[in-house]
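Researcher: We are triaging several targets before committing to wet-lab work. For this one, the compound of interest is adenosine-5'-triphosphate. I'm pasting the protein sequence and the ligand SMILES. What I need is the predicted three-dimensional arrangement of the protein with the ligand bound, expressed as structure tokens, so it can go straight into our comparison scripts without reformatting.
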Amino acid sequence: MERTTILEANTITKTFGKKTALSSLSFFIHKGEKVALIGPSGAGKTTLLNTIAGIVEPDSGEWIVAGKRRTDYKSGKAFAKKVGVIRQQFDLVGQLAVIHNVLAGRLAEWGLVKSLFSLLFPRDKEMAVAALKRVGLEDKMVEETSTLSGGEQQRVALARLLVQKPEIVLADEPVASLDPARAEDVLAIFSSIVTEENQTLIASLHSVEYARKYFTRIIALKDSKVFFDLPTDQVTDQLLDDLYKLEGSDGHG
Ligand SMILES: Nc1ncnc2c1ncn2[C@@H]1O[C@H](COP(=O)(O)OP(=O)(O)OP(=O)(O)O)[C@@H](O)[C@H]1O
């Protein structure tokens, strides 16, 4: 099967003062891949995701997103069709009803006012209801979002992605604040949505176990560089030990 490149990192470098966060990273990501970014704290995972999303500007190098330089996307709207982001805090508006937060996924396409008044448009409401059903939250549709649990709020964020339908989904520690059962629940839904929608997923994770279970490829970062980049089934325990080993603790005393 021919593999289409959807994202290309071309010598991405970023420093903060004297600290190098990303040292000339280059790799390709193909359509449909589920990529877990792992590695010790401070390795550069969040910075990498932020350079794709355009939240952090690299010092040099560039991302090619769906065949076009990221900086060449002139409108936020065009970019939002390509790239959607799920953040740790989910970016939900707590005072709004759940369904309004879901419809905010159409924000890029419609603008704020139409998104907020979108319940007046029955077809759009249907889309949001279907998305909420997909994540098992149809009974919470009209509740105030802030009253939902962390796991439920993360599922609202997933429903919002379902209506936004970006080709590439970025997620920074998507389940960090959830207990193990809820984390697995959210990852399982996340992973099947991405597969069904033929999207590409790139997520940073602290849990190697989840990376192995839900992702097809693992890119490990260490000290701002790629430490390994392998299909999940080729990632050995030895590599993981080496990745997380603390400097100076090499087992010789
Ligand atoms: N805005 C910033 N200002 C200064 N230094 C920063 C900034 N953002 C990141 N860094 C530094 O860049 C390096 C990479 O940070 P980053 O947050 O990308 O790592 P990470 O792998 O996501 O870590 P964690 O797993 O702890 O979230 C770290 O040394 C961090 O201190």
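Researcher: Any quick observations?
Model: The mean pLDDT is 87.
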